[in-house]
Amino acid sequence: MKPAGSFSKLAAYGVAVAAIILAASAQAAAGSAVVQGVKGTAEHAVAGSWETLTANTVLAPGAALRTGVNSQIDLSLGGNGKSVILLENTTLELTTLNRHRTGLDVVFETFLTLQTGTIQGQVKKFSDASKYEVKTPHTIVGIKGDEDSEYQISADGKTALLDGSGVVAYTNPSSGGVTTSTVGNKQLFVPPVDPAAAAPSVRPVQAGDVTPANPVRPGPVGAPAAPVVAIQQPVQFISPTTGLTQGN
């Protein structure tokens, strides 16, 4: 018969091992994006300078991309969404691409920063704990994950939900006040032309609101390029879905 003290030590050891395993399983891992195709002038920032971007390049979190006139970049985000298209004259940062497993769920955090231009994206249905947000100069758009979604977001704040729904937190550049709007399926969020005199509005998507875009034919398949490592500047996100400040 083993002494009670030995049994207690074994039990404590088992609890500690279980805690370590759970902690390891919940540890966040950085995701990545893969360039599916490019058209025209497509560049990414490498060591402080802009260089030509090619198909099959693997991009790490923090990478900055831009397109020129009549140009386009098609990205696959893998588990951090699905896909993003950068239309012409667009500058986008892949601010955060995290994913980790908690029990049976895979939780991901996707934060994109749109500085200029327009992006279109497709987002797969995701768990309640996951987050997908796009920050523009005056808005933060949170995509809801209860169904597959498709969107178009411009740096001026206009946000079209072609499938699914989302929440837009708008910061008035005149007053500094913040308003939150729910944008439903096939609806468009429109910031005011004169922020000092009007409020943002939500209306049905109309002809001409969404820019037609066709996927770029992928280039020759080859070995992926090395991940692009970009120095991230501190970015604060105030989630429109939770109200909590996100930082990285």
How would you portray this structure in words?
By secondary structure, the protein is mainly beta. It has a single domain (30-247), classed as Jelly Rolls (Sandwich). Helices cover 9% and strands 45% of the residues. It contains 1 helix and 21 strands. It has one helix at 4-25; strands at 29-30, 33-39, 42-46, 49-52, 58-59, 64-67, 72-76, 82-86, 91-102, 105-116, 118-123, 131-135, 139-143, 149-154, 159-163, 166-171, 178-183, 187-190, 201-204, 236-238, 245-247. Strands 1, 3, 4, 6, 9, 10, 12, 13, 16 and 17 form a 10-stranded mixed beta sheet that branches. A hairpin with a 5-residue loop joins strand 7 and strand 8.
Key terms for this structure?
nine-stranded antiparallel beta sheet; ten-stranded mixed beta sheet; mainly beta; Jelly Rolls
Short recap of the structure:
The protein has one helix spanning 4-25; strands at residues 29-30, 33-39, 42-46, 49-52, 58-59, 64-67, 72-76, 82-86, 91-102, 105-116, 118-123, 131-135, 139-143, 149-154, 159-163, 166-171, 178-183, 187-190, 201-204, 236-238, 245-247.
Total number of helices: 1
Poorly predicted sequence stretches spanning 5 or more consecutive residues? 10-26, 219-236
The figure for the number of domains is 1
First-residue to last-residue Cα separation: 54 Å
Shape type: globular
Q: What is the class in the CATH system?
A: Mainly Beta
Which H/E pattern describes the elements? HEEEEEEEEEEEEEEEEEEEEE
Mean of residue pLDDT? 83
Strand content: 35-45%
Count of individual beta strands: 21
- This entry's quaternary arrangement is single chain
Write down the Rg: 21 Å
Classify the fold: give the CATH topology.
Answer: Jelly Rolls
